[in-house]
Amino acid sequence: MNFIVVKKTFIGIFLLVILSGCVQNAAFLGPTYTMATTGNIYQAGLTYSSQKAVNQLTGKSTGENIKEILTPKENNTELRKLVKKNIEETRKKLKISNQ
């Protein structure tokens, strides 16, 4: 059992070192898989072209964009205070005009 784990780890590290130069072509991996499994070349082409368009527009890959969206942002407390102050002033003005 332990030999199998060592063998898989060795093969994984070996493939990682050998295939590290293929990172540039990784954008073809998803569309190629789609074409191989579904046989739909149009869907594969659309997937590839949309990935390239997102990359050109944002300068980031699709994964980087998703990571940026999912990371929590810091609250802008100054903006929040300003908005809260304006809301309170507007409420005061509305109360005066309603009386």
Q: Provide the number of structural domains.
A: 1
Specify Rg, calculated over alpha carbons: 26 Å
Give a quick account of the main beta sheet: strands, pairing sense, barrel closure. Answer: none
Mass-distribution shape? elongated
Quaternary assembly: single chain
- Cα distance spanning the termini: 83 Å
Order of helices and strands: HHHHH
Number of strands: 0
Number of contiguous helices: 5
The amount of helix comes to over 70%
Strand content: under 5%
Kindly name the structural category: mainly alpha
- Spans of at least 5 consecutive residues with low confidence: none
Q: Would you tell me the overall average pLDDT?
A: 76
Brief summary of the model shown:
The chain is mainly α and 99 residues long. It has five helices and no strands. The model has no long low-confidence stretch (mean pLDDT 76).
Structure description:
This protein has 99 residues and is mainly alpha-helical. It is built from five helices and no strands. The protein starts with a helix and ends with a helix. The relative contact order is 0.05. The model has no long low-confidence stretch (mean pLDDT 76).
What's the arrangement of secondary structure elements?
Elements: H1 2-18, H2 29-38, H3 41-58, H4 62-70, H5 77-98
Question: Characteristics of this structure?
Answer:
77% helix, 0% strand, mainly alpha, 99 residues, single chain
